[in-house]
């Protein structure tokens, strides 16, 4: 876990920064016959005292409590991981790659709301459509290939 320096009213504090990882369910014999459902996943991995994890139902299509996680595509898994992580902490770093452009705007507004409520969010994205909405915008450029010639 990385430490993030947060400047808040002339006070510098550090806070743990959690990367939103895509969680995979292990493939084994038990999982084949008794698949992990979203209900089981959230009971084990989410902080049930924080109600933000329930917002995952707004983002994943055709979702019910008994939906097996192994039937999710990569986008649904990313949403499940995002809301599970947000239930534990509001200091996160997230990669928006692979999220459809139609949904990215909603996710970014959720992340802005998280940051406005005292959190810290670092977003990795290939495009600059949210450049004006960021408190700090950094752009990385590719300089030279070490594999050329």
Structure description:
- This protein folds into two domains: 26-88, no CATH class; 90-149, no CATH class.
- It is 32% helix and 17% strand.
- The chain is built from five helices and four strands; from the N terminus they run ββααααβαβ.
- The chain has helices at residues 29-33, 38-45, 56-59, 74-88, 101-116, and strands spanning 2-8, 11-19, 91-95, 120-124.
- The chain has a four-stranded mixed sheet, with helices on one face.
- It is globular, with a radius of gyration of 18 Å.
Layout of strands and helices, then pairs:
Layout: E1 2-8, E2 11-19, H1 29-33, H2 38-45, H3 56-59, H4 74-88, E3 91-95, H5 101-116, E4 120-124
Parallel strand pairs: 2-3, 3-4
Antiparallel strand pairs: 1-2
Total number of helical segments? 5
Structural class: alpha/beta
What distance lies between the first and last C-alpha atoms, to the nearest angstrom? 37 Å
Overall outline: globular
Keywords, separated by commas or semicolons:
single chain, 149 residues, alpha/beta, 2 domains, four-stranded mixed sheet, 5 helices, 4 strands, 17% strand, disordered N terminus
